[in-house]
Specification:
The complex is a heterodimer of chains A (about 270) and B (about 325). Helix content of chain A is about 70%, strand content about 0%. With about 270 residues, chain A is mainly alpha-helical. Chain A has one domain. The C terminus of chain B is likely disordered. Classes of the chains: A mainly alpha (about 270), B alpha/beta (about 325).
Chain lengths: ~270, ~325
């Protein structure tokens, strides 16, 4: 019997056939290349960002700097491009009635879509990270990196830490994808869902810098985009990493639950 | 134990705010029926079909497809296929890929039937083209193909000929007739009287969300009986004579001139012809006329015919 995996495979096939997928992945590839090219041409460095001062010393610093830059709007936008569209596109194409009258249950359709949106987000971040790493190594070499604790670690150990950082970075990205999926389900309009997701992400960052709201800082989704830095301390600081895990879950799981209920209960009427 | 009816609807009700879109509809579609679900636009046909396919939830009442409730999950749609309004597909995928997607979501070897169903709707040579470039008629045919993938025993088709050119409408009717001959039970929602008259053995006529008639087409015609067309040199005098004549009723203007009336029997018609001769109204034509489905449809959906007259007058004004 067909089920979630069938839906998931076809959601990926549909993503491969849509331009917006390549727009997001293209940005994920282009931005690191542009960044490294600009560094090579201007020979300066972003000193006010963690690891910024090391971008000419080791290529390992490049993906880490980009993780910080990208968290403001680039990666949330790339994530929202697909997550915000994946249900709303069915409304635009009026195809919900087509898939709801086949032999898969609505919850399986939803799960397949959620998995596909998550897969795309993970692929985009990993692609961006790998391109940044390779471009950085080509430009600045594969050399040891200095951690946030000031200790120097070997290039191979640094590579493992970069990989682990990317993995932790995926937690808030998946939370953003879940919120995008919620907006996509509720708004039934791709543009509204994509812009809404980005606005939500920016709003949390705004709250983070407002005076008097410092107590909220650890619980904001925007803060979790920096929790990977726990890996770049010696010894590893697990507290922010564990916090990212549960704080991101607090954003993602209710969003997914509400989206699922809305998806299950919706009337496919009036076009 | 006999198998449950393909469709059994009881007390189906759907409201949108103050508007009652479907008003306590009862209907039963039996095995082998080509069942016409007939009504003017906005009568609630599509909303009913959506509830039958489990796409929207009724406010009250129940739907059973072969005894199963589509609100409880897609298991109720086993052996059931169809579409509501225009069939919809992913425009960036080819027709064949859309069918592959549908087949994947159907399982049960549906993928092996793709070529066969493309042949049935005569679309095999266009299967590789993106649906975004398809005409309306091609999408309708692809909709039928997608439905046939499920190897259905029951097809629910919502206005399948809408938007097609005359040739496309003829082809669609032939296709539906062919499917019915293969033993598939069909519920055909339509506002095209010719289509229903040509294809269906039973009908439900809906008006403002409610069913005003359900039964065999032949019974409906029988119930309506025979009307007579009267053409004279002086219609106004003839109308007065008709009104005064016992056994003559429902006198109204006939489309294209003259009068239409119903008679209690042939004797009453004979008496009328004598009365007309005595009154000096020259009779040019007095002929029996079997009520068409159109007459019955308007009779049932527009009540006393006043609305029809208004509509015809408006159409005439528009033409002028």
């Amino acid at each position: 019997m067909p089920g979630t995996l069938t839906v998931y495979r076809w959601e990926l096939r549909k993503l491969r056939a849509q331009k917006r997928t390549y727009l997001g992945l293209g940005a994920a590839v282009a931005v690191p290349l542009i960044f490294v090219t600009a560094l090579a041409i201007r020979n300066g460095e972003p000193r006010d960002v963690a690891f910024g001062r090391y971008v000419h010393d080791t290529g390992l610093a490049v993906p880490l700097v980009l993780l910080l830059f990208g968290s403001v709007w680039l990666f949330p936008l790339i994530t929202a491009l697909v997550a915000g569209d994946i249900v709303a596109a069915e409304d635009r194409d009026r195809t919900l009635k087509t898939i709801f009258t086949r032999s898969v249950e609505r919850q399986q359709v939803f799960a397949g879509k959620a998995l596909a949106a998550g897969t795309y987000a993970v692929a985009a971040i990993l692609l961006s990270g790998v391109v940044a790493l390779l471009a950085g190594i080509v430009a600045s070499g594969y050399s040891p990196i200095v951690t946030l604790s000031g200790t120097r670690v070997s290039a191979s150990h640094g590579l493992v830490l970069v990989g682990a950082s990317l993995a932790v970075y995926l937690l808030p990205i998946l939370a953003v994808a879940s919120i995008g999926l919620l907006f996509s389900t509720v708004f039934r309009n791709s543009a509204a869902a994509i812009v809404g997701t980005l606005m939500f992400s920016l709003l949390l960052q705004l709250i983070g810098i407002l005076p008097g709201l410092g107590g909220l800082q650890p619980y904001l989704l925007s803060t979790q985009f920096q929790d990977w830095q726990g890996f770049l301390r010696v010894p590893v600081d697990w507290a922010p990493i564990l916090r990212a895990l549960w704080v991101c879950s607090l954003y993602a799981l209710p969003a997914l639950a509400v989206a699922l209920v809305a998806f299950l209960r919706r009337d496919v009427a009036g076009e | 134990m006999p198998e449950a009816a393909p469709i059994e609807v009881r007390g189906l009700l759907k409201r949108y705010g103050k508007l009652t879109a479907v008003d306590r509809v009862d209907l039963t579609v039996e095995h082998g029926d080509v069942f016409g679900y007939l009504g003017p636009n906005g009568a609630g046909k599509t909303t009913s079909l959506r509830m039958m396919l489990g796409l929207i939830r009724p406010d009250a009442g129940s739907v059973r497809l072969f005894g199963r409730d589509p609100q409880l999950g897609v298991a109720a749609l086993e052996g059931v296929a169809g579409f509501v309004e225009a069939p919809a597909f992913y425009p960036y995928l080819s027709g064949r890929e859309n069918l592959r997607l549908c087949a994947a979501l159907d399982g049960d070897g549906a993928a092996s039937r793709i070529d066969e169903v493309l042949d049935v709707v005569e679309m095999r040579d266009r299967g590789k083209d993106r649906v975004g470039g398809y005409s309306h008629g091609m999408r309708q045919r692809l909709g039928i193909a997608a439905a046939l993938l499920r190897h259905p025993r029951l097809l629910l088709l919502d206005e399948p000929a809408t938007g097609l050119d005359p040739g496309g409408m003829r082809d669609m009717r032939e296709l539906i007739r062919d499917l019915a001959e293969r033993g598939i039970t069909v519920l055909l929602s339509s506002h095209l009287l010719v289509e229903v008259e040509e294809l269906c053995n039973r009908v439900a006529i809906v008006r403002r969300g409610g069913v005003v008639y359900e039964g065999a087409l032949a019974e409906l015609r029988e119930r309506a009986g025979v009307s007579y067309r009267l053409r004279t040199g002086e219609d106004e005098r003839a109308r007065r004579v008709c009104a005064a004549q016992p056994g003559i009723e429902d006198v109204c203007e006939a489309p294209g001139g003259g009068l239409l009336f119903r008679a209690a029997g042939e004797g009453a018609v004979g008496e009328l012809s004598l009365a007309l001769a005595e009154s000096g109204a020259p009779v040019l034509e007095l002929s029996p006329r079997q009520a068409s489905l159109e007459d019955l449809f308007f009779q049932l959906t527009e009540g006393d015919g006043r609305a029809r007259k208004e509509r015809m007058a408006a159409a005439a004004e528009e033409l002028a």
